[in-house]
Amino acid sequence: MAFPTLLSFLLSLLLSLSPTLSTNSEGNALHALRSRLSDHTNVLQSWDPTLVNPCTWFHVTCDSNNHVIRLDLGNSNISGSLGAELGELKYLQYLELYNNQIGGKIPKELGNLKNLISMDLYGNRFEGKIPMSFAKLKSIRFLRLNNNKLTGSIPRELTTLSNLKVFDVSNNDLCGTIPVDGPFGSFPMESFANNRLNGPELKGLVSYDFGC
Amino acid sequence: MNSEMGTTHMLHLILLFSVLSSVHVVTHGDSSTDSYWLLRIKSLLSDPVGVLENWSPKAKFCTWNGLTCSDDQTHVVGLNLSGSGLSGLIPAEFSHLTSLQTLDLSMNSLAGSVPHELGQLQNLRELLLYSNLLSGNVPPELGLLKKLQVLRIGDNSLTGQVPRDIGGLTELRVLGLAYCQLNGTIPAEIGNLKQLKSLDLQKNSLGGLIPREISGCEELQNFAASNNMLEGEVPASMGNLKSLQILNLANNSLSGSIPMDLGRLFNLKYLNLLGNRLNGEVPVELNQLSQLEKLDLSRNNLSGSINLFATQLTNLQVLVLSDNFLTGNIPSNLCNGNSNLWQLFVARNKLSGKFPLDLLNCSSLQELDLSDNEFEGELPSELDKLENLTDLLLNNNSFSGNLPPEIGNMSHLETLFMFHNMITGEIPVEIGKLQRLTVLYLYDNQMSGSIPVELTNCSSLTEIDFFGNQFSGSIPQTIGKLKNLVFLQLRQNDLSGPIPPSLGYCTKLQKLVLADNKLSGSIPLTFRFLSELFLITLYNNSFSGPLPETLSLLKNLRIINFSHNRFTGSISPLSCSSNLTVLDLTNNTFSGPIPSSLSLSKHLTRLRLAHNFLTETIPPEFGNLTELNFLDLSFNNLTGEVTPDLSNCKKLGHLLLNDNQISGTIPSWLGTLQELGELDLSSNSFHGKAPPEIGNCSRLLKLALHGNNLFGEIPSEIGSLTSLNVLTLHKNNFSGLIPSTIQQCEKLYELRLSENLLTGSIPSELGKLTELQVILDLSKNFLSGEIPFSLGNLMKLERLNLSFNRLHGSVPLSLGTLTSLLMLNLSNNHLQGQIPSTFSRFPLSSFLSNGGLCGPPLAPCLGPEKKPLSNTAAAGVIVAIVFASTLICLGLLYVMLRIWCNWKKVSVLSSDAGHEQRREEEKWVYGEAMGRDFEYWKVNSSQVKQQISTACIFQLKVDTETVDHSF
Question: Start and end of every Leucine-rich repeat-containing N-terminal plant-type domain (chain B) (predicted)?
């Protein structure tokens, strides 16, 4: 019994030895992300969790208050999946993860990124639905989810995103109809191409998820 | 004849001798064969200690070391050479000692395999070969030793399977095969060992199921099979092992639920199932184990509530249920008055509720770990009823309220983990009574008030961590009383005032973290006594003054971070520890030169001295810092050239020398720094050409050379930087063409080439940089020709500035599809013709001073040949058309107006939302000529009234026009 006792003590000791990390929440979030990703070309090599903040990690950009505002991992040959912890990056403006092999669902917690201007997840293997929580991305201007394996309908809640300038979901497996309200009135049809979408929404005639 | 006689005589003699000697050998072997074989065995073993020294024919063999003889002194019945330092192989000759009952060769360095000949020792009762270097299989022949009672051959490197033949050893009491590399399964035949009392199979690679036949071992008292790869369920039949006292199946892959039959093991004292995949609830039947002293079910997938009661488990001393999915609270009647429970570990479960008050009855408790659960509410003031407690771990819960003052009565307390809770209020002064307290972790709570002076009475304290609270006031003056302090972290609080000089008397201090406070004053001179100190971080405070010279005595310093303070003077006192790995003095007011002695810290990986007033040159000795990864000397007053010795720092990943007065040319050896990811030499006085070798830094992500006096062409080798994200070459004197190779920098998201002397046309290859996002800025050059159509591919581009060039021709329609574009400046060129209709969203200033651009927001184009109309003329035309259309379809107009009113509401809403952003855009578009901003309004002021009314009409016109066209 001495062994497990010792072990649990060692464990708690280990945890306690790194208290300096505990409020580096953005660094922790990114480090948690790293643990989910397979990094075939070592682009995440510089991500040292023992640093006070992640601002000197490559592919991470901070503002003058040391808050992460950019994550640039486009075309980086990474695979794996995303997790809830990305939602901790409260100051993030640019989430650039395009053209990789990232799969799994898009975590709904990404909807917590209130300062996000651009989310580029295109060219990956994301599946599941477009999170309804994206309606909380009040700053978002560019939302590119094209060339994935997304299913389900386009959440109607997204029509409230008044700053949205670009919305591209082409080349997925979405169904239902295309919203027409809010910014969706101005998006070109190419943004919706190659899905199982049934044309523009016909309010009152058929439900928006018709054919899903 | 004589000679003949001689030879025959000689022959006789030889014969006689040979006969005599052979007789001697035979009689020796005959009379005591055992001694013969023992001597043989001796000759085959290596005996460096000399344990076998008295094994000699001169003495009677029964007197030899380690031997036990039969009563008649003729045979050896016992041989004990345990721990004798013997090495070599186990001689097969042991098999000739047929009377042997005990053979103990344990704890030697014997190698090779277990000789199968040992199977011939038919009288053997005990065979002990454990703790040697034996390899190979367990010989099945051991199954022939029918009288064997004790077989212990573990702690070797034995491989292969446990032979089934062992099941034939029906007399066996003890079977020890632990700490080997045995694989395969536990043979079912083990159930035949009716006499077996102890079965030890720990630390092997045994897989498969635990055979249910094990229930046949009716006498079994000790069964240990931990650290194997056993799978399947714990057989319910084990409930029949009535004699079992110790059951250890820890660290296997057992699954299923814990069989309730284990509750019938009334003699069980020790039950360890930790580290398996057991699920389901903890069976209530375990409460019947009245003899149980230690129970460990941690690291499984157990769920449900804890249904264990010390009222029945009267002998329970240790209960470990950590790392499961247990819910509910600690059972209310876990302890009665006279329980013996002294260790209770339930960390990392999903337990909830308030601090279990009934736990306070467990007065014998010494170690209590409730950490990483969902407990909440205040801590009971009667906590001190746990008067024997030495370790109290309540971290990572949601406990709230104050730390009860009664905690001061827990005089045995050594470890107090309260971190990651929601504890408020002050630290009770009573804490000062805890003379044995060594570790006090209160970090990540919401505690406030000042740190009580009484805390410094806790003279055993070695570690204090108050990080992330709201403690205010100053650090207690008497902190120096904590002579045993090794680790002090007060980071992220509201502490003010100076560091008490007495802190320098905590001479065992190794880590001192005072960062993120409002501390001020200078570093006390007493810090020279902190010779053990290896980490000191004071960043984000208001410390000032020069560093004490005596800091140079601290030779163990490894990590220093004094950034964001107001320290002055020289940094040389911090350059004397040759152990430095990290030195960060960013954003202070240090002055003077960078000390070359820093180069003595051979392990330095990060050196950050940015935002100071450092002068003179980068010391050439820095070439010795071969481990250096991060060198940031930006925003200083450094002069001179970049020392070529820096080319030795091959691990440099970040080289930031921007915003200094560094001169000379940009060194070509930068191309040899293969790890370089960030190179910022901007805002210096570099001149000359950009070296083409820079193209060898293939990992470069950011290259900033702007704000220098660089001239010549932009090297085409820039195209080799295929990882590059940011390239800023603006504000130089670069001339010639924009190299088309830049198209290979496919990951560029920011490209600034503005304010140079670039000529030629914009290469259409720029259209391949489809990740361009932040900006493409080519303004203020001498670029000519037309805007390439391909720029319309830059679908992510948010800012495009081509202003102040000599571009002519029309604006390609493709640019109109750049939906991401937020800011556009095409002004001050020779562009003409209609701009894409989508550009109406940009301000007028985006297009000013061109040859003849038209279309909204500019004046409308009237036709390909006609000159654009003046504003007044345009207004006249509009009015005319309005009247005409009004006459034609008055009713239609009414409908349109209704639609417009709805549209206006929407547009007002969206323009409000984008207000702040628009202001930023305007600033950017108008650049330095802010005056034009007002001009713009002046020009239009006469039309402001009209605008409101015409806007709708204009819209109408366009609508009708497009309708016409589409027909």
Answer: 33-70
Query: Distance between alpha carbon B21 and the CA centroid of its chain, in Å?
Result: 77
Contacts of B420 in chain A (CB under 8 A): 22
- For every residue of B68-132, DSSP letters joined together read EE-TTSSSEEEEE-TTS--EEE--GGGGG-TT-SEEE--SSEEESB--GGGGG-TT--EEE--SS
The single residue listed with the structure tokens 């029964």 is: B62
The DSSP 8-state label assigned to residue B652 in this structure reads -
d(CA B775, CA B767): 13
Residue pair A113/A136 in contact (Cβ under 8 Å)? The answer is no
DSSP single-letter state for residue B593: E
B146-186 pLDDT, tens digit each: 999 999 999 999 999 999 999 999 999 999 999 999 999 99
**Unique residue bearing structure tokens 């409101």:** B948
Quick one: tokens of B687?
Answer: 């001149």
Q: What residues 301-330 of chain B have any CB closer than 8 A to a CB of chain A?
A: 318, 320, 322
Reduce the secondary structure of B596-638 to three states and give it as a string: HHHHHCCCCCEEECCCCEEEECCCHHHHHCCCCCEEECCCCEE
Give me B568's structure tokens: 């002055």
Residue B788's nearest CA partner among B769, B806, B814, B824 is B814
Query: What is the value of ipTM here, to two decimals?
Result: 0.82
DSSP of B221-239:
-EEE--SS--BSPPPGGGG
Helix axes B931-941, B944-966, angle to 10 degrees: 80
At residue B678's C-alpha, the angle toward residues B674 and B684, to 5°, is: 115
- Domains observed in chain B: 562-817 (3.80.10.10)
C-beta of residue A157 within 8 angstroms of C-beta of residue A179: no
Peptide bond into B404 cis (omega under 30): no
- Facing B747 at nearest CB: one of A20, A74, A94: A74
As to burial, measured by CB atoms within 10 angstroms (0-12 exposed, 13-18 middle, 19+ buried), residue B934 is exposed
Q: Which residue among A8, A75, A162 places its CB closest to the CB of B298?
A: A8
Q: How many CB atoms sit inside 10 A of residue B654's CB?
A: 22
Tokens 């640039």 belong to: A72
Q: Do A56 and B654 touch (CB under 8 A)?
A: yes
A141, A89, A91: which is closest to A120 by C-alpha?
Answer: A141
Work out the number of other CB atoms within 10 angstroms of the CB of residue A194.
14
* pLDDT tens digit sequence for B268-314: 999 999 999 999 999 999 999 989 999 999 999 999 999 887 678 88
| Residue-wise pLDDT tens digits, B605-643 | 999 999 999 999 999 999 999 999 999 999 999 999 999
Residue B17's pLDDT is what?
A: 46
Cβ(A87)–Cβ(A110) below 8 Å: yes
